[in-house]
Amino acid sequence: MAQEISSQPECWRQAARLAADPSCPLPARGLRVAVVGCGTSWFMAQAYAALRDAAGLGETDAFTASEAPVSGRGYDVLVAISRSGTTTEVLRLLAGVRGRIRTVALIGDTASPMAQAADAVVALPFADERSVVQTRFATTTLTLLRAHAGGDVSAAVRDAEEALRAPVEDEWVRAEQFAFLGSGWTYGLANEAALKMREASQSWTESYPAMEYRHGPVAIAAPGRITWMLGDAPEGLAGEVARTGARFVAHDRDPLADLVLVQRVALERARARGLDPDGPRNLTRSVILAEG
Fold first, then answer.
1. Closest by Cα among 273, 108, 115, 269 to 196
2. Closest C-alpha to 49, from 40, 39, 41, 59
3. 204 contact partners, CB below 8 Å, separation of at least 6
């Protein structure tokens, strides 16, 4: 996990070059798009959908693959994200829409069943991982999608390099609880940050849209706990959290790069607890369900 976290800036550079290739099969402007994945890939789908919508490129919806209501909704393209290319729910969905909706798969393992199940493939083998816990594949995929949607990712790469050098504070390693917040495309990042903490270090973590945090979840804020904002914080929120005694964390760096720092915190929390972040309990690299 440590090596995979540290390799992200170079992976992002490669992803940006792929996005600039005219032959890249990702959806063109004006198409109606559904984006699906499971777990981490679903959260990257959420971020991409918000980015593409905000850029005015076309209506874009994100779904977890097992709950994707794509039939009869008039989607032009289904984009499926899967590191392993073996996730059962994604493969079932691709099979169900074959011949009716054009499909594009973003995968790490090009020898996987998903490479044959989709109409077009964007291969990211350089971002594939050995660790069960995803880090670089997720962020590299989102960098590709972000760049293809017209975003300039050069600042994100520089900020990721800085995030790899930034200190991991002891307070973060010892904290009792984390709440991650985001807005727009960074809400997907907040969901992913919370998942990383749960997977790697068995931490108590939650995630919310930033404006929604005041509507109940702020009740959990207290001394020894962290509220971490990914992106720009709503006016007044930092002060409200500070009055609870909780620590409010927000950085002036690209939110995706700040996710890299969260990954490092999750790794250090796992080490502090004597856990194996690459082989967390109850988890495997891919969820493959028995047929029937």
1. 269
2. 59
3. 176, 177, 178
Minimal CA–CA distance to 192: which of 60, 8, 38? 38
Between CA 54 and CA 248 the distance in angstroms is 27
Judge whether 208 and 256 are in contact, CB under 8 Å: no
* Structural domain boundaries in the chain: 2-152, 159-272
Three-class secondary structure assignment of 122-144? EECHHHCCCCCCCCHHHHHHHHH
Mean pLDDT, residues 23-46 taken together? 97
Q: Give this prediction's pTM.
A: 0.96
Minimal CA–CA distance to 108: which of 136, 76, 149?
136
Domains 2-152 and 159-272 share a fold: yes
pLDDT tens digit sequence for 41-55? 999 999 999 999 999
Using the predicted structure, report yes or no on whether residue 143 has a pLDDT greater than 70. Answer: yes
pLDDT at 71: 85
> Which CATH code fits 2-152?
3.40.50.10490
Question: Does residue 248 carry a pLDDT above 70?
Answer: yes
Does the pLDDT at position 292 exceed 70?
no
Three-class DSSP category at 227? strand
Decide if 47 contacts 185 (C-beta within 8 A).
Answer: yes
Whether the Cβ atoms of residue 97 and residue 73 lie closer than 8 Å to each other: no
Are 107 and 115 spatial neighbours (Cβ–Cβ below 8 Å)? Answer: yes
CATH topology of domain 159-272: Rossmann fold (3.40.50)
At 65-122, the pLDDT tens digits run 999 999 889 999 999 999 999 999 999 999 999 999 999 999 999 999 999 999 999 9
How far, in Å, are 25, 74, 78, 91, 220 from residue 65 at the CA level? Answer: 20, 17, 11, 9, 31
